[in-house]
C-alpha cells in the first residue's frame, strides 16, 4: 500500500520471534531466536514446534504438553511470560499469543516471544547492589545518631555543655548524610524513569563556578589551587540552577578530593554533536547542540583507561575514600535531562578531565 512504509523484518527485532501455523509447524524463526536457542532458521522452518523448541519448566515438565496450545481451552488467548529451560539447561523468558480467526475457534497462529535472562539478571543485580549500598551507608550514621542520643538521654547531667554540643553537632552531621543519601535515591529513581523535574530559569554558569570555588576556599582549601577561566561570549542558558549546582558541586568535590595539584575550571561557548539521552529508544540519531561547556580537570593520577567506560555507572568509585558511587551517575542523568552531554578523559596535566555541555534554550513556558 502506498505510504505504508517499509515492512518490518523479523530479523530486526531484538527478541526471539517464533511463529507456528495451525498445524504446529514453524513458519517464522528470526535471527534472535536462532541465537537464543542454538537452532538455525533453516533447521527450524517447516519443522514441528515441539521439536524445535523443546522447552521445560523449572520442574522438568514439557511446556507444550503442559499448556496444550492447540487442544486446550478455546478461550485462551495468551501465555504470560515465564522462565523456561532449553535443552542443556539454558534459561529463557517465554511468552505466547494465540491467534484465532473466530472467537473460541481453533488456533491459526501461535506467536512465541523469547528473551534472554541476562538483562533481567543485570537489573536484579543492580537492585541488590543498590539495596546493599543503601543499607551500608545508612547503618553508619544511624548507629552514630542512636548511640549519641541514647547516651545523652541516659547521662545528660554528666556531660558539660561543650561535650553536649559536640555530640549534637555529630548527630546533625549524620542526619545530613542520611538526607543526602535519600535525595540521591530519589534522583536515581526519577532519572531511571525519565522523570527528573527541572525548574528552568536563566543561569549564569560562570558566576555559579566562582560561587562554588569561593565555598571551597571558605572551607580552608587554598585559593591558588583553583584556576577559573571564562571564555566570552557565553550563550543565554536556561537551566535548573539547583541541578546545575549539584553537577558543579560533585565535579569540584571529586577534583579536590581525588585529584591533586591545580583544579582548572573552564567555561566556554560550545557547539558539538551529542548522542540521545539514555532513556530514549535506540536508533535515535545524534544532534548538534549549541550552548555552554564546563571543563573540570586536575593534575592527579587520573582515571585508568580501562575504567573510563564505567565512570558514569552506578557504584563506580575512583578510590577507597568513601562515597556511595552514585554521584557521577546522577550528574550524567541531570546533564542529559537538560539535553546535554558529559564525558571524561585524561587532562593535559595527567589527571581526570570532566567536560559537560548544557544547551542554550528557552524557558519551559515558552515551549
In short:
The protein has 367 residues and is of the alpha+beta class.
Can you describe what's shown?
The protein is of the alpha+beta class. The protein folds into 3 domains: 11-116, PAS domain (Beta-Lactamase); 120-192, Signal transduction histidine kinase, dimerisation/phosphotransfer (DHp) domain (Helix Hairpins, Orthogonal Bundle); 201-366, 2-Layer Sandwich (Heat Shock Protein 90), CATH 3.30.565. The chain is built from 9 helices and 12 strands. A 5-stranded antiparallel sheet has the order 2-1-5-4-3. A hairpin with a 4-residue loop joins strand 1 and strand 2 (26-29). The longest helix has 38 residues, at 118-155. It is elongated, with a radius of gyration of 28 Å. 25% of the residues are buried.
Q: C-alpha Rg, in Å? A: 28 Å
Strand segment count = 12
Q: Runs with pLDDT <50, length 5+?
A: 1-5, 277-283
Strand % is 15-25%
By CATH, the superfamily of the largest domain comes out as Histidine kinase-like ATPase, C-terminal domain
Report the total helices: 9
Name the overall outline: elongated
Task: Determine the N-to-C terminus distance.
Answer: 37 Å
What's the helix-strand series? EEHHHHEEEHHEHEEHEEHEE
CATH architecture of the largest domain: 2-Layer Sandwich
Q: How does the SSE layout of this entry go?
A:
Layout: E1 16-21, E2 26-29, H1 31-37, H2 41-44, H3 49-52, H4 63-67, E3 78-85, E4 91-100, E5 107-116, H5 118-155, H6 161-192, E6 201-202, H7 205-218, E7 226-230, E8 238-239, H8 241-258, E9 263-274, E10 287-297, H9 327-337, E11 341-346, E12 352-359
Parallel strand pairs: 7-9
Antiparallel strand pairs: 1-2, 1-5, 3-4, 4-5, 6-8, 9-10, 10-12, 11-12
Helix pairs in contact: 5-6, 6-9, 7-8, 8-9
Amino acid at each position: 500500500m502506498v505510504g505504508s512504509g517499509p515492512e518490518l523484518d523479523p530479523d530486526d527485532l531484538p527478541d526471539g520471534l517464533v511463529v507456528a501455523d495451525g498445524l504446529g509447524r514453524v513458519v517464522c524463526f528470526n535471527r534472535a531466536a536462532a541465537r537464543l536457542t542454538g537452532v538455525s532458521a533453516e533447521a527450524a522452518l517447516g519443522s514441528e514446534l515441539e521439536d524445535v523448541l523443546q522447552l521445560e519448566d523449572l520442574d522438568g515438565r514439557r511446556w507444550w504438553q503442559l499448556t496444550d496450545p492447540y487442544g486446550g481451552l478455546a478461550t485462551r488467548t495468551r501465555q504470560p511470560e515465564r522462565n523456561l529451560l532449553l535443552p542443556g539447561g539454558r534459561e529463557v523468558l517465554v511468552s505466547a499469543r494465540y491467534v484465532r480467526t473466530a472467537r473460541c475457534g481453533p488456533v491459526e497462529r501461535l506467536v512465541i516471544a523469547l528473551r534472554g535472562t541476562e538483562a533481567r539478571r543485570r537489573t536484579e543485580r543492580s537492585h541488590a547492589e543498590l539495596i546493599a549500598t543503601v543499607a551500608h551507608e545508612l547503618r553508619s550514621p544511624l548507629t552514630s545518631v542512636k548511640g549519641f542520643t541514647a547516651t545523652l538521654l541516659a547521662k545528660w547531667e554528666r556531660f558539660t555543655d561543650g561535650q553536649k554540643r559536640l555530640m549534637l553537632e555529630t548527630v546533625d552531621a549524620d542526619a545530613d548524610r542520611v538526607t543526602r543519601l535519600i535525595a540521591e535515591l530519589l534522583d536515581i529513581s526519577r532519572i531511571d524513569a525519565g522523570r527528573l523535574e527541572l525548574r528552568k530559569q536563566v543561569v549564569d554558569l560562570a558566576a555559579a563556578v566562582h560561587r562554588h570555588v569561593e565555598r571551597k576556599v571558605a572551607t580552608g582549601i587554598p585559593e591558588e589551587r583553583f584556576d577559573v577561566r571564562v571564555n566570552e561570549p557565553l550563550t543565554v542558558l536556561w537551566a535548573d540552577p539547583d541541578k546545575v549546582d549539584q553537577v558543579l558541586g560533585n565535579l569540584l568535590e571529586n577534583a579536590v578530593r581525588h585529584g591533586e595539584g591545580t583544579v582548572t575550571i573552564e567555561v566556554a561557548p560550545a557547539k558539538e554533536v551529542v548522542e540521545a539521552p539514555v532513556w530514549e529508544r535506540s536508533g535515535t540519531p545524534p544532534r548538534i547542540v549549541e550552548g555552554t561547556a564546563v571543563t573540570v580537570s586536575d593534575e592527579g593520577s587520573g582515571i585508568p583507561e580501562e575504567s573510563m567506560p564505567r565512570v558514569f555507572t552506578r557504584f563506580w568509585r575512583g578510590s577507597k575514600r568513601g562515597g556511595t558511587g552514585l554521584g557521577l551517575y546522577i550528574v550524567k542523568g541531570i546533564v542529559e535531562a537538560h539535553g546535554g552531554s558529559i564525558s571524561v578523559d585524561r587532562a593535559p596535566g595527567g589527571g581526570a578531565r570532566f567536560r559537560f555541555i548544557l544547551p542554550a534554550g528557552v524557558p519551559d513556558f515558552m515551549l
